[in-house]
Prior knowledge:
The longest helix is centred in the N-terminal third of the chain and has 17 residues, at 40-56. The protein has helices at residues 22-26, 32-36, 40-56, 122-136; strands spanning 8-12, 15-18, 62-66, 70-74, 77-80, 83-87, 107-111, 140-145, 150-154, 159-163, 168-171, 174-176. It contains 4 helices and 12 strands. It has one domain: tt1808, chain A (Alpha-Beta Complex). It is an alpha+beta fold. The protein is globular, with a radius of gyration of 16 Å. Strand 11 and strand 12 (174-176) form a beta hairpin.
Amino acid sequence: MRNISGLICEILDDKPLCFKGYQEVLSGKKTVEEVRGSGSLKSLIAGYLTGLVGKLIDENKFTVLAGRPGVHLDRRDNVSSAIAIFDQAVLPGAKISRKYVDVPPKIAIGIDIDADVTELTETGYIHKKTRKLLQFGVEKIIWVLTEAQVVMVATADRIETFDWHRDIELMDGQLFNIGG
Length: 180
C-alpha cells in the first residue's frame, strides 16, 4: 500500500482521516494537490473571514492564524481549522513555532469538511470534533457549510444553526454575514 502520510487531514481518536478523494490519489487518478486544494467558494469565504477578523479584533490582545492551523488536543487528536483566533495570554509570540499549537484558540472557524468522513458521516464528524474542541477549552466553534448555506455556532451552552444570510456574532458584539 502507498504511503498516505501526505494525505492525512486530521487525526481523531487515534484514527487518521485523509482528505476527501484520497482513494483517487492512491489509484493514480488525481494528484495530492488536487485533493488538498480548496475550491473558489471556500477560498473566497476564507479570505472574507480572515480579512474581517483582522479588521475586527484587537491585534494587541489576539493572534489570528489562518491556512489550516493545526491544534494538538492530546496524543490521540490533531485537528485543524480554516481560521483560529487565540488570546495572546494563551498563545504568546514565544509559543508560535513550526509545530501544532497545543493550547486552545478562543474561536475556531471551519469551512466545509476537508476530511473523508465516510465512516463517521458529516454530522457525526462535526459533532465529534466540536465536542473535542469545546472540551479542550475552545470557547466558540463556527462552521460554515457551503452546500447547505448555513453557519453553525457551538459554545459550551448551545449549538445553533443559522441561514448564512443572517448576521452572526463573531465576538464582543462584532458581526459577520457570509451571504449578505
